[in-house]
Write a structure and sequence with these properties.
disordered N terminus; about 20% strand; about 375 residues; 11 helices; about 30% helix; GMP Synthetase, Chain A, domain 3; 4 domains; five-stranded antiparallel β-sheet; five-stranded mixed beta barrel; alpha+beta
Length: about 375
């Protein structure tokens, strides 16, 4: 039996080289080519800094880098400290995915592995990030600027600080940079981000109970429209559709293609079904179940009938030939059934009075036990 080793030396455990490093790192990429022989030489590696900021650097010194190594890289000015997140043949593919133009992107160098002095300096300046952000917000408010400082990131050597801000309008922060330079005594860089990018940098947990997608694996953001919620028959409540960034949830697009493909085989809302009993109008649709709910009155629930998509297409074909069936042939559904959930009462667990019943039973048992003890 083959033995496998983890980074801590534990035997008889399976390990993947592509998954090595800090598993908690945000937006980490699994190097699925880590254990395969390299076909092409590539000295460019991906390095991640605080939260979602990443960069690509060339390994001119040919250091034996692997995922999870802390390195000192070239910056302007000075140097920065980051963690290697990807090496090998996947780096060019990742750069292509992120739409990085090599003609405009300046690929800087990796100096060395991070030393103890580098890590100590990085930890010292990292402690100042939170107080700097609070103070920078106060300064921006005193200057009357309509902007919000979302995050502050110090460079590894402490010579520069990046201020991430959110603003709905164009902001003239020339005076702000002068005040920041005098206050914090570092080189200032202002970088504008959106609400989704801010949520990705700060992190958090969504209503699903998992960490935010934008802070764990999602590197690019796609536009999300209200039509995505309408297509999936979701509640139009904006509080349920919005994420922590106050924008529409990115996960609304995850299953949208599946719903669109299912809707292609369904009749549209403007097609009416003619029967000898009445004319039926499409009231609602369930694309995944392939079921349609028809009403005998337009724009309101009345005599609801649930039929399959196949049955609806058969009636449409009959109507085209001038034939009207006796009925839709579906199951009837009342308005109350339309709005209720289909679930089972498992041993009364959904009853609010179940705790009262348990307490009464316990009291009766205690009373009987007391009487028996007295006897």
């Amino acid at each position: 039996m083959n033995k496998f080793e983890l980074n801590n030396g534990t035997e008889n455990k399976f390990s993947c080289k592509g998954c090595q490093g800090n598993s908690h790192l945000k937006l980490s990429v699994t190097d699925w080519l880590a254990e395969m022989p390299s076909v092409t030489e590539n000295d460019v590696v991906e390095v991640q800094f605080k939260n979602t900021r990443k960069g690509y650097f060339v390994n001119e010194m040919h250091l034996p880098l692997k995922k999870g190594d802390l390195v000192a890289v070239e910056a302007n000015p000075g140097h920065d400290i980051g963690e290697v997140t990807l090496t090998g043949a996947l780096v060019p593919l990742q750069m292509k995915k992120n739409r990085i133009d090599l003609t405009r992107y300046e690929i800087r160098k990796i100096y060395r592995f991070a030393t103890e002095q580098d890590l100590q300096k990085r930890d010292e300046v990292k402690v100042k990030e939170q107080p700097t952000m609070i103070r920078s917000r106060q300064i921006a408010a005193s200057l009357g600027l309509s902007m919000k400082i979302g995050d502050v990131e110090y460079q590894g050597d402490g010579t520069k600080a990046i201020f991430y801000y959110i603003a709905d309008e164009r902001v003239d922060f020339r005076q702000l940079i002068k005040v920041y330079a005098e206050e914090f005594r570092v080189r200032i860089e202002m970088k504008q981000i959106g609400a989704r990018q801010e949520a990705g940098r700060i992190g958090g947990f969504g209503p699903c109970g998992r960490e935010l997608c934008c802070s764990t694996w999602m590197g690019q953001f796609c536009s999300v429209g209200t039509m995505a919620a309408k297509t999936q028959n979701l509640s139009p409540n904006p509080q349920k559709l919005a994420g922590l960034c106050a924008k529409l949830k990115c996960c609304l697009n995850y299953e949208l293609d599946t719903y669109n493909d299912a809707l292609k085989t369904m009749p549209t809302k403007d097609i009416q079904l003619e029967t000898l009993q009445a004319t039926y109008y499409l009231f609602s649709a369930d694309p995944l179940k392939k079921e349609l709910t028809y009403s005998s009155a337009p724009n309101m629930p009345a005599n609801l009938q649930v039929i399959s998509v196949q049955r609806a297409n058969e009636i449409i074909e009959l109507n085209r030939k001038g034939v009207k069936p006796d009925s839709l042939g579906g199951k009837e559904m009342s308005v109350d059934q339309e709005n209720t959930l289909d679930y089972e009462n498992v041993v009364g667990q959904d009853e609010l009075t179940r705790f009262d019943k348990n307490s009464k039973n316990n009291k009766n048992k205690k009373h009987r036990n007391n009487q028996s003890n007295r006897r």
